[in-house]
Design brief:
With 320 residues, the protein is of the alpha/beta class. The chain folds into 2 domains: 200 residues, inorganic pyrophosphatase (n-terminal core); 100 residues, Diaminopimelate Epimerase, Chain A, domain 1. It has 12 helices and 11 strands. Strand 1, helix 1 and strand 2 form a beta-alpha-beta unit. It is globular.
Length: 320
């Protein structure tokens, strides 16, 4: 029997995986990639009696492969908080899916494990731009201010590492990060004893210095759009910039576009909590768009579509 874990390479996917593997750390095949690489189950070749655990990747984007794996005799366990679509009714399919805007996949795993490794769920909440949830969980765990601040930075740095169009854009391959994290029950020990935290901080700071001169391409009441240059630092910074802009301008919808190869862009969208149009609903209006109610994205937006995107973005989110 082979165990497969297919997990998003961001903070939420990594911390969900970490919690499960701390409980059951045996040999496993890890399948992951950059944050936008969500159709991971197509890379899983499982057979009868194998087990597949999917973490933080939309079931709607992987549904055909879920059915393929079930037909092959594998068992599939699914933890996620993105748009799921129709779920299969099958004795070997186990779903832990909640699309609420106040949860992330690691919180669903935390519930499943009864809070056994909650500190890693707190890291994920901060990394997945749920700071209020992270602080609430940390307060319930009576963490001091220094620990909370450190876990917040760790979450942000792990999340930042996942952004890029290819693995060569990243400081660490997420599979390698997972291997480095596995020995650590306590994320504070990981911060102290691993070089990852410092290395990601140095790269993060360098990329943010490059981003300081950016100006909005579109700025209207309630809607801000920024187009980044075709640089590796920009592809790494897109998620951080979207999250920080959303936190500094909670009244505005934010769209950050990063050039992939001149003719295509990746898009990160953040919307206010009270927005009448959800971020995932808006992004699904474009091919390869998906996500959550307040945070979503488009994997491949053709350059020829930018004007249409900008017009629809301003129309949907402009304050009236």
């Amino acid at each position: 029997m082979t165990r497969f874990y297919a997990f998003n390479g961001d903070a939420d996917g990594l911390c969900a995986l970490q919690q499960l593997r701390l409980v059951d750390p045996g040999d496993a095949v890890l399948v992951t990639g950059v944050k936008r690489d969500i159709r991971l189950l197509q890379r899983v070749d499982a057979a009868e009696d194998d087990t597949v655990t999917a973490l933080d990747i939309s079931h709607a984007e992987n549904s055909a492969d879920v059915l393929r794996l079930l037909r092959a005799g594998a068992s599939v366990r699914y933890f996620d908080h993105h748009h799921a679509g129709e779920l299969p009714r099958h004795p070997r399919f186990e779903a832990h899916i909640d699309e609420a805007s106040t949860v992330c996949t690691s919180i669903l795993v935390d519930r499943y494990l009864g809070g056994l490794h909650r500190a890693w769920a707190i890291v994920a909440a901060f990394g997945d731009n749920l700071p209020e949830v992270g602080r609430t969980l940390a307060a319930a765990a009576t963490m001091d201010a220094h620990a909370v601040a450190t876990l917040e930075q760790l979450g942000k740095r792990l999340n930042y590492n996942a952004y890029g169009s290819r693995l060569s854009d990243l400081r660490f391959d997420p599979a390698e990060l997972a291997r480095r994290m596995l020995p650590f029950v306590d994320p504070m020990a990981f911060v102290r004893e691993s070089t990852v935290y410092v290395e990601l901080g140095e790269q993060f700071d360098a990329d943010m210095r490059c981003a300081q001169s950016l100006k909005p391409t579109l700025e209207a009441p309630g809607a801000i759009m920024i187009v980044l240059p075709e640089e590796a630092w920009a592809r790494r910074a897109i998620g951080v910039l979207a999250n920080e802009a959303a936190q500094s301008r909670p009244d505005c919808a934010i769209a950050i576009l990063a050039s992939e190869a001149g003719d295509e862009f990746t898009v990160s969208v953040r919307v206010p909590a009270e927005s009448p149009v959800a971020a995932d609903e808006f992004c699904r209006g474009f091919e390869s768009g998906n996500g959550r109610k307040r945070a979503a994205g488009i994997n491949r937006l053709p350059a020829a579509e930018i004007d249409r995107f900008a017009a629809r973005f301003a129309e949907c989110f402009r304050s009236r």
